[in-house]
Amino acid sequence: MTDDRINPTPQAVAGMVGRQFPQWAHLPVRSVSWEGWDNRTFLLGDDMVVRLPSAGRYAAAVDKEQHFLPRLAPHVPVDIPTPLARGVPDEACPFSWSVYRYVSGDPATRENIRDLDAFARRVAEVLKAMQGVETNGAPRAGPHNFFRGGPLSVYDEDVRDLLVRLNGRIDTGAADRLWQGALSSQWMTDPVWVHGDIAVGNLLIRDGRLGGLIDFGSAGIGDPACDLVLAWTFLNDHARGVFRDEMGLDVATWQRARGWALWKAMLTLASGGRTHPAERAPRDIIELVLKEAASEPVNPQDLGLAGRS
Fold first, then answer.
1. CA 24, CA 27: separation in Å to the nearest integer?
2. Fold exhibited by the domain 107-302
3. What share of the chain is helix, strand, coil (3-state, %, to 5)?
4. Please, are residues 222 and 148 in contact by the beta-carbon 8 Å criterion?
5. Burial level of 30, CB count in 10 A (0-12/13-18/19+)?
6. CATH homologous superfamily of domain 10-103?
7. What pLDDT, in 10s, does the model give residues 73-127?
8. DSSP code of 31?
9. Taking the CA of residue 4 as centre, how many other CA atoms within 13 Å lie in the half-sphere pointing to its CB?
10. pTM check: above 0.85
11. Separation of alpha carbons 226 and 222, rounded Å
């Protein structure tokens, strides 16, 4: 895939901020040490960040975050970004963009988390709190969030292609069986809020504990299975069990969650894409979900009635 993302310099972003928000023109703009794929992020002074969509396909997140983050914030038991201003397209960024209050903390790693079980429990508490927020007017899964919270079938053609491309590199027979199982159920209760990208780079640690959650660009309402992939990308076996118990979701939802983890890991492996240094390598994620799926046969009666256990 051609990388068509913008890559403005801190100097260009400082100029843009100065033109649109002269009250902040004197503040320094600095790059961050780690940023995701969908956005370019810069520190503005000591307590703000500038967040720019890196390409047009990510631009819809700006209005969504501006509108819904204040609605979510009172209910989420960790810090999340607070919108301070909305910028308009500029020579440094051809899309709308945002200024947020800075959420302090470092991306989650095994080294900076004091107790991995407690961390898993806290992530579950945050996700359940989001799921409890009313959804009136909230955006359902769709192109705006790459169908996070929507049906896995959207990515079936991708997975068919990936199975061919990865033949001989992974156990494609087992991967196909896992994928078919993941497609065999759906979320049958009311849609709930999902973050859409529960990854270590978005989970911020302060004093050994989870203190913040950032990057709500993939948020929407639907099936919470997509928010469970941390179980395999980062958690160890025991913390994974804690996370699963705390979430209280049924077998079919976890089966779909493994489908989400498999799709993303296969895509990353096939494309040679990068992962956060604290996360498992894509091949290791694939092997882990395949091993777990093989040890947990699913009763057909459990499928098609997915919800809370």
1. 6
2. Aminoglycoside 3'-phosphotransferase; Chain: A, domain 2 (3.90.1200)
3. 45, 15, 40
4. yes
5. middle
6. Phosphorylase Kinase; domain 1 (3.30.200.20)
7. 999 999 999 999 999 999 999 999 999 999 999 999 999 999 999 999 999 999 9
8. E
9. 7
10. yes
11. 9
